[in-house]
Every structure is written in C-alpha cells, then in structure tokens.
Write a structure and sequence with these properties.
Distance between the termini of chain A: 31 Å
Oligomer: homodimer
Protein name (chains A, B): Alpha/beta fold hydrolase
CATH topology of chain A: Rossmann fold
Largest interface: A-B, 88 and 88 residues
Number of helices of chain A: 8
CATH superfamily of chain A: Alpha/Beta hydrolase fold, catalytic domain
Keywords (chains A, B): Hydrolase
Helix content of chain A: 25-40%
GO molecular function (chains A, B): hydrolase activity
Strand order of the largest sheet of chain A: 1-4-6-5-10-11-16-17
Shape of chain A: globular
C-alpha cells in the first residue's frame, strides 16, 4: 500500500468522521429484566445508513454524497482494484467535501429490522460478465481494467451482501435525512443506486444535482407515461410508475447519466452485455421524459465522445481521472462547483 | 456534522485508501455457462478483512492497526457517539499511520464462506448494561458518556451484525496477512478482538506491541497452565489452551491492557457488571502468566490511577483524549513511537 498516491501532494483535511443517519427502532413490549435479559422490553436500532465524511481545507460549497450499487459498499468509491485513488480522494483533491455512504442493510449499516439469510452464492463469473469486464474468462480487448490477477481479486472482494431486503423507499428516506444534515449537496449514484437516487431527490430539495453512473434499475416515469418493459437476454427491464408531481420534482435540477463501453447495438444472446442494452435504452427514454417536462437531463454514452473500454465501474476504471474530468466539467457547466 | 473538529488544525494526509486482505475462494465444479449462469463453474471470494488506511505527512515509523469488538465495525474508532474525534483521527494527529479494520464476516468485509441468518435481535438494553453505560434505564453517576438521547442513538447504531460465524483463527489469519502488508506495526484491540489480537501476534512477528482495550474473551494460556474457569452472573468465562511455544511468542513484545470503571469487587447479581469482574480477574492471571514466562505485559485498571467513569468503549468515552494520552505514554515508554 506504501506506493499508492505518493505521486500526489498531501491532502489537507479540515474535518473527518462518520455518522449514522435515519433508520427506525423496533420495540419488544414488556419490562426489561437486567439480570435475566430476553427480548422482552428491549429495543433494536436498524435501517439507518452509515456515512464517512471528509471536508478538505478551503472546500467548495456543495458536498458530494456518493451512493454505491448492488453487492457493494462505500468501498466502490475508494481505492481502485489496481490500487489507484478512487473518486473519494480524487474529488477531495478537487475541493469537494465527500460523503461515502453504506446504505441501510449493507456494510457498516448492517442492522436490518427485517431478517435475512446470507449465503456464499458464487457470482464471480456472473459479475465479470455483467459488470462488463469481458466474457468470462476473456477480458474485452479494450477494457479499462488492469489484467493482473490480484486486481480481479481485489475487485471481487469489494462485494458485500445485503443484511436485509433491498428497499429503495427506505434507502431514499435515510438518504433524504442525510441531505438534511449536509445541506445543499450533489448526489453521485452507481448502478442499483440510480433508483434510490431519483427518490432521494424527490424527497429532499437539498439534492442540487445528480451524476448517475450506469443506473441499472428503478427508472421512474409518470404513471400516465410508462414505457413498455424491455426484454433482454438477462430478463425484462420494467419501468416504475410514480405520481406526476413526484416525477416533476426531478425537473428542477441538472442530471447527467454516464454509460461505458461494450454495449450491443442489436439484441444478442450475450447475457452480460444484453442486460445493458436495455438499460441504456430505458435511460434514453427517461432523459427524454425529464426534458419533455421541462427538466435538464442528459445522457452520455462514453464511446460517443470517444472514451472507450469502460466497465460498469466507471469510477474505478483505468481511465477514472478522465471520467472525473468529464464530471468536473458537468459540475462546472451547471454552477455546482 | 459541520461543527465537529473545527477547533483543531487541519489533518495533512500523505495517502489514504482501502484494501481487502486475506480470505479464501470457494469454487463450484463444472464449466460456467455465461448465458445461462448457475453456480456451476463459478467462484466466491470471502473471509477476507477490509481495511481503510490513512498515512499522515511526516508519519512515525510504526502504523497502528485498530481491530473492533463484537457487534461492531471500524466505526468503533471513528467519530464518538457524541460527535467528537475518535482514536482514528486522534492518533493520525499524533503522527501514526492508522489502519481501521472490518474483520472478516463484518461490515464491508461481509462476504462469508459460511452461511448465516441475520435477525433483528433486540439487544439495546443488554448492551447498555453490558457495555457499562449504567443499569438500564439509569446511567452510572460518574459515567463518561454524554446523556443526550441522540448520543445513545448514535452509539446503538454503531452495532452491525456478523454475516457469518465468528472465527478467531480465521480473523487472525487475515490480520497476520495485513501485518505482512503494513510491515512492523502496533495492534489496538477492543473487547472480543482481544483473542484474535493475541493470535495475530503469534502468527506475525510484525506485531511490535499490543494495546488491548477491555479484552472480553479469548484469554489464551499454555495447555499446562490453564486456570479454572470463572463463573459470573453473565455466565462462565473459560480460558483457552494453546501450545506453550505459541504462548511464548507473546513474551517478546510489550503489551498493555486497559479496563474502565464500575466493576464490582465482589460477585454480584448485576449481570452487566459481574460479566466484567471475571474478565478483569482473568486478564490479571493472563498478565501474570505472560510475565512469568519472561514477557512484558501490564494491566491498567483505570480507577486505580484515578481515571473514573469509563465504559467498555474507552476509545470513545468523554475522556478519550485522556485515555489516548495514557496510550501515547505507553507507546513512548516502549519506544514504539
């Protein structure tokens, strides 16, 4: 670890720490017997999120709150699998306060009010394909992912399980409570966090902009404008209905969505890739709908601007500085910096 | 959060990041079918630890590796429940590189090779008693714990469950692998981490000193010198046998153990307190055994040096700067700084 980051100037951190936000309390009726403890009369705190934050010296006004995707934690935004700086430290260097979230029922926010079973389900090869490193066991020729075995090992060890059922409404409740604490801030979402991200912006006017990296589910549309679901080799992608008034709350903030490379143009049997063909298509309809309602959304398919080889993990790919530069330009264009 | 730490000078961080260390890989036999994925031919990476590290500018030679206790994560060492800086940032300010660990099957290292069920077991009142905040619902008169309800809420939300069975051998294997990466370093352990901490020092000569905060279990003795188990109102505390050669590996490094306040002197029916009476007694026998074999161990029961009111969480109590000063003096006395 001693060789990482040394080429950079030191970080000057004004303040850092962590906090639990949101959540609920379960209470078992009765009177607690201190010297014969049972569930009776005891409480349980759960369904909160956990956030670690760092505020650099002379920081910009708007913090960035980063929310991970499925099977991941705040780890997604830290050191890259090949040991370079991730978006946490890159955006600290660019002057933004950064909040890294473990969503409710994940990572350090593991206390769930609903029980679940955690099993060692072998998904490594599915992840390799679905996160577009390549088609197992082969990497895509242009993939922006280091080929050293230890890099793949680190990538696969960033996976961590749900400790309770995924609940986008609950996650966005806790996220909205976090934005109450941060004040006006920018939201970065990755993959499965796309959906909870939109819901957070509906629930909190402190969300001043959204940068969504490869949103994979939770595409919400007005009830009366729901597009057809989209079948793919990885299953059918269903849009989700919300009241028009909620949808229109997303039209007041700048939103940008990024997708990487190696998406098929036509339907294909290649499950890992076809999964993303429909997500990109649905995201295009979503951006159209936001803008039709007077919003300010854009979608950048990176190969269209000649940025090639990106996996599902844009923030930790070999060219993540180039991706960060794209994001910085967006934040600057929208006066969010 | 904006009011925390502002009274301090900024931190200058040379390098920060995170890494997964140790662990194993499960493999399901067969050939993976990319377009009809099942368990067949897939692998699962689990049982690694997760560590977040920060290296301050002009740092001291020996990093500090901090390992949390039961139901906790690295969160234990971060911001205190009442919002002050914890040992992570306090010891960074004192010039030590700091590594915060989520042990295998906990927090961000949630992938377990053994399945488990996670349930919302209500333990808040038991924790209040057992972590010696007081006797629920009353705080001890002298307790070094802020009485604001939101402080207790933060404290209880630092709890996060096991995502697999606790395994001291597996945890210490991963910890020894971490010390291989850090090089010579100091180990801080809390509560249940006491046992895995001793085992880590047996497995890695890079452990140059141990500061154990309220070790609660895993007291290891030479097979031929096993003391009697010690009954208490919270159950019987059993010492654990290891080969003499392993035990003697602990006699080459300085070790200090700290315990806080509100321990009963005589056996009592008060379960939360009596639990610690026997742990303190067993720790005294353990220190005697280490020193009898030529080691350098000491036990500090804080009330004996007139430091009063400490809970089980010495590192985040209201007087945690005073506790940190005690630790700094030990590290200085033992040339570990």
């Amino acid at each position: 670890m001693a060789d990482q980051g040394r080429k950079f100037a030191p970080l000057t951190i004004e303040e850092q720490g962590s906090v639990a936000v949101g959540g609920t309390v379960l209470t078992t009726p009765g009177t607690y017997d201190n010297n014969n403890p049972t569930a009776v009369g005891q409480t349980f705190h759960g369904d909160h999120l956990y956030a670690f934050y760092q505020i650099p010296q002379d920081s910009k006004a708007l913090p960035i709150v980063m929310l991970h995707g499925a099977y991941q934690s705040a780890r997604s935004w830290e050191t890259t699998p090949d040991g370079r700086e991730g978006f946490q430290t890159i955006f600290l260097r660019r002057g933004y306060p950064v909040y890294l979230v473990d969503q409710p029922r994940r990572g350090r926010a593991g206390n769930s009010t609903v029980a679940t079973t955690v099993e060692p389900t072998p998904f490594d090869q599915l992840f390799f394909d679905q996160f577009r490193l390549g088609k197992w066991p082969d990497y895509f020729d242009n993939v922006q992912f280091d080929r050293k075995p230890e890099t793949l090992d680190q990538f696969l060890r960033s996976v961590t399980p749900n400790t309770g059922p995924f609940d986008a409404g609950m996650i966005s409740d806790a996220m909205a409570a976090l934005f109450d604490k941060t004040g006006p801030a920018i939201l970065f979402s990755h993959s499965q966090a796309g959906g909870p991200g939109w819901l957070t912006a509906i629930k909190s006017t402190n969300v001043k902009g959204i940068v969504a990296f490869e949103p994979g589910s939770g595409f919400i549309f007005p009830e009366s404008e729901l597009p057809e679901e989209m079948p793919s080799a990885a299953g059918s992608l269903k849009p989700e209905a919300v009241p028009l008034a909620d949808f229109e709350r997303l039209t007041g903030i700048p939103i940008i969505i990024y997708y990487g490379d190696n998406f098929p143009v036509e339907p294909t049997k290649e499950r890992g890739q076809d999964n993303w063909r429909v997500r990109l298509a649905m995201a295009r309809l979503w951006v159209e709908a936001i803008n039709k309602h007077g919003g300010d959304a854009q979608l950048v398919h990176l190969p269209d601007i000649d940025i090639r080889g990106n996996t599902h993990f844009l923030m930790s790919d070999l060219n993540n500085i180039e991706i960060a530069d794209q994001v910085s330009k967006f934040l600057s264009d929208k006066k969010l910096d």
